[in-house]
């Protein structure tokens, strides 16, 4: 299976910036498609810029079905846009938007109901309560990403022994594909490749095409 590389733009970029990023980077990862698969998570207003041949990922979804929920973007609307994946439970959503484990579980169920794969982010302390809140029949249908909040936005990942230990804790709940996120850079990506991971999530280092390109090259040449 190709190694997954998920670019999370968070609340960054304008329409011209997303277009220019795609023009530069898409030819690079098309060249490496046997070794890696890129998933792109821009803001909602930019999802339509991603052609159907790309793996588009929303950064959030409503925990509710379509209805009277002003401002919410629901799972069927994302499906209409060709979205294939959706982040749920990012620590910034849990912290700044006060999302609970039950909100995250409801989002998972809305997404899987329309055939969008949730990418469920977990810090170490979320693991037990989050799996307890999920519907058992849905657990193995998500992708997971271990992301320690204290290691976001820097240049040093969590220690490799901590990542290995937490991989084991998540593996006790599900055999689903598992990513790592948090300060992944061109300088440290090679250290993560020997771990038992299906991919990585990259935010800060995905914003500039030069650093994202370097990450893709390291992965492609290692595989
Ligand atoms: P980072 O962020 O790559 O900038 O550390 C990861 C994330 O929060 O998704």
From TrEMBL:
<comment type="pathway">
    <text>Carbohydrate biosynthesis; gluconeogenesis.</text>
</comment>
<protein>
    <recommendedName>
        <fullName>Triosephosphate isomerase</fullName>
        <ecNumber>5.3.1.1</ecNumber>
    </recommendedName>
</protein>
<comment type="pathway">
    <text>Carbohydrate degradation; glycolysis; D-glyceraldehyde 3-phosphate from glycerone phosphate: step 1/1.</text>
</comment>
<dbReference type="GO" id="GO:0006096">
    <property type="term" value="P:glycolytic process"/>
</dbReference>
<comment type="similarity">
    <text>Belongs to the triosephosphate isomerase family.</text>
</comment>
<dbReference type="Pfam" id="PF00121">
    <property type="entry name" value="TIM"/>
</dbReference>
<comment type="subunit">
    <text>Homodimer.</text>
</comment>
<dbReference type="GO" id="GO:0004807">
    <property type="term" value="F:triose-phosphate isomerase activity"/>
</dbReference>
<dbReference type="InterPro" id="IPR000652">
    <property type="entry name" value="Triosephosphate_isomerase"/>
</dbReference>
<dbReference type="GO" id="GO:0005829">
    <property type="term" value="C:cytosol"/>
</dbReference>
<keyword id="KW-0413">Isomerase</keyword>
<dbReference type="GO" id="GO:0006094">
    <property type="term" value="P:gluconeogenesis"/>
</dbReference>
<dbReference type="GO" id="GO:0019563">
    <property type="term" value="P:glycerol catabolic process"/>
</dbReference>
<dbReference type="InterPro" id="IPR035990">
    <property type="entry name" value="TIM_sf"/>
</dbReference>
<keyword id="KW-0324">Glycolysis</keyword>
<keyword id="KW-0312">Gluconeogenesis</keyword>
<keyword id="KW-0963">Cytoplasm</keyword>
<dbReference type="InterPro" id="IPR013785">
    <property type="entry name" value="Aldolase_TIM"/>
</dbReference>
<dbReference type="GO" id="GO:0046166">
    <property type="term" value="P:glyceraldehyde-3-phosphate biosynthetic process"/>
</dbReference>
């Amino acid at each position: 299976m190709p190694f997954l590389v998920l670019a999370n733009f968070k609340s960054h970029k304008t329409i011209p910036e997303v277009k220019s990023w795609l023009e530069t980077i898409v030819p690079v990862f098309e060249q490496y498609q046997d070794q890696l698969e890129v998933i792109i998570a821009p803001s909602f207003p930019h999802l339509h810029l991603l052609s159907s041949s790309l793996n588009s990922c929303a950064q959030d979804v409503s925990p509710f079905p379509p209805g009277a929920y002003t401002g919410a973007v629901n799972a069927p609307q994302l499906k209409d846009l060709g979205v294939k994946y959706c982040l749920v439970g990012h620590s910034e959503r849990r912290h700044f938007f006060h999302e609970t484990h039950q909100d995250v579980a409801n989002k998972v169920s809305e997404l899987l109901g329309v055939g969008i794969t949730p990418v469920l982010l977990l810090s170490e302390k979320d693991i037990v309560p989050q799996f307890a809140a999920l519907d058992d029949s849905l657990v193995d249908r998500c992708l997971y990403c271990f992301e320690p909040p204290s290691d976001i936005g820097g240049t040093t990942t969590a220690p490799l022994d901590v990542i290995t230990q937490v991989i084991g804790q998540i593996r006790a709940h599900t055999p689903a594909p598992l990513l790592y996120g948090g300060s992944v850079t061109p300088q440290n990506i090679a250290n993560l490749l020997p771990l038992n991971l299906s991919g990585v999530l990259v935010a800060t280092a995905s914003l500039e095409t030069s650093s994202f390109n370097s990450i893709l090259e390291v992965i492609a040449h290692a595989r």
